[in-house]
Write a structure and sequence with these properties.
mainly beta; single chain; three-stranded antiparallel β-sheet; 107 residues; 8 strands; 0% helix; Immunoglobulin-like
């Protein structure tokens, strides 16, 4: 190896090097909130809460006074995208914001 990074475990085995695959984007799509206390379920085969994560980012212009953040939850085989904040649904504003959903799976 002429350049890069290698990590060894306590037994001297290489556990991570420049050829290691550590994570990848397995799903990307545009989602729009429902403007009600609701959620969408997007199927992502093989995904679990222990091997992946999901997040949303705004697309296009974003009005900070009226647009609200969508919230994601990884479940077995899918991602849920909520139009409200789950932990405080009774106080949360709903949103019809449009955002890009990105799902990453770790190996």
């Amino acid at each position: 190896m002429s350049f890069g990074l290698k990590i060894w475990d306590e037994s001297g085995n290489v556990t991570l090097d420049e050829t290691s695959f550590t994570m990848r984007v397995v799903h990307s799509s545009v989602v729009t909130g429902s403007n009600s206390a609701n959620y969408q379920t997007i199927a992502v085969p093989g995904l679990t809460p222990t091997n992946g994560t999901a997040f949303v980012v705004p697309v296009g212009s974003y009005n900070v006074n009226s647009d609200k953040q969508l919230e994601t939850e990884v479940i077995n085989g899918a991602v849920r995208v909520y139009s409200f904040i789950r932990g405080r649904a009774q106080y949360s504003s709903t949103t019809s914001s449009t955002m890009r959903l990105i799902v990453v799976r770790f190996s």
